[in-house]
Amino acid sequence: MLNKFGQLKKLTGNLNPDFPLRAPTWPTTVPRVPKKSRLGANYDTGWSRKYPVRLIRALFLDGVTRPLIKTLIPPTIHGEDRIKNVAAPVIFAANHSSHLDTPLLATHIPETFRHKTVIGAGADYFFDRWWKATLWSGLVGAIPIERSKVNRKSGELAESLLSSGWSLIIFPEGGRTPDGFGQLFKGGIAQLAKKANVPVIPIYIKGTYEALGKDSVKFKRGPTQINFGYPLRIDKDEDVRQFTKRIQAAVDELAYEIKSDWWTTKLAASKGEVPSLEGPQTKGWRDEWERSRDAAKGYKSRNRWPNSD
């Protein structure tokens, strides 16, 4: 018996002299199979949709976050009448200017949707640490969405939740604007709406970039605005790319409507004259804008597209 034990120790290279009383160490010549990460897109958010957590979240959003939002960045709501008869589930699609967009929408979408809505958040940013994943999924109902690559699990989770009656807030730009201009919408939202057979409600948010933009070093109090658009559905003869462009065009119109009015916006839209939130695409113009924007840092007055009044 002792001889066999000695042979076993010799084979394992004496990696653990206490074996078999303790677990053996891993032989250096044998490659380990990497453990699958339980963060990022693999983070399980199912616990955050159980009733006790939902109740805590509702109390937090309505009792803490909503009053803070009304105090610090008080929103004016437009277009709620356009969606008052829309039944859940839906996808809310908004431009993305600030981290403030998430709590602003989470507390000010209509009450019929508010407490059964999840928020698509970047898996690489909001779910890269346990504490961040727990905080965001627990307090605002976030689910991980892969932004840098196609992830089947992210899409399947969002689709299954929509099929179960949950609505979804998503920012199709995939990240906050770095300069105040809008960014091109990604096609995942249109694909998801098609698969789940749900309408998309376009939303334009104004004022959060001024309060806390991506490169801001401090928070600035000020008013905000939310403009809800009519629900959109993909047409039978429309592909995903076309539908994505139509959703983005609807958000552009909502932005222009705030600067002007409904009738002026409709006239401009009929002529194809609604300015895009992406701003002029001429490289020289954008380079000059960047230089003037950088030069204006530290000054109270800064022109921003399309919010310069």
Strand content: 5-15%
Q: Tell me about the largest β-sheet.
A: 7 strands, mixed
- CATH class group of the largest domain: Alpha Beta
- The value of Rg in angstroms is 25 Å
- Could you state the CATH homologous superfamily of the largest domain? Glycerol-3-phosphate (1)-acyltransferase
Strands of the widest sheet, in order across it, are 1-7-6-2-5-3-4
User: Which of globular, elongated, flat, extended, rod-shaped describes the shape?
Assistant: globular
The tally of structural domains comes to: 2
Number of helices: 12
Global structural class = alpha/beta
Q: Helix and strand succession?
A: HHEEHHEHHEHEHEHEHHH
The end-to-end distance, rounded to whole angstroms, is 89 Å
Mean residue pLDDT? 86
Helix content: 40-55%
Number of E strands: 7
**Low-pLDDT segments:** 299-309
User: Do you know the CATH topology of the largest domain?
Assistant: Glycerol-3-phosphate (1)-acyltransferase
- The name of the CATH architecture of the largest domain is 3-Layer(aba) Sandwich
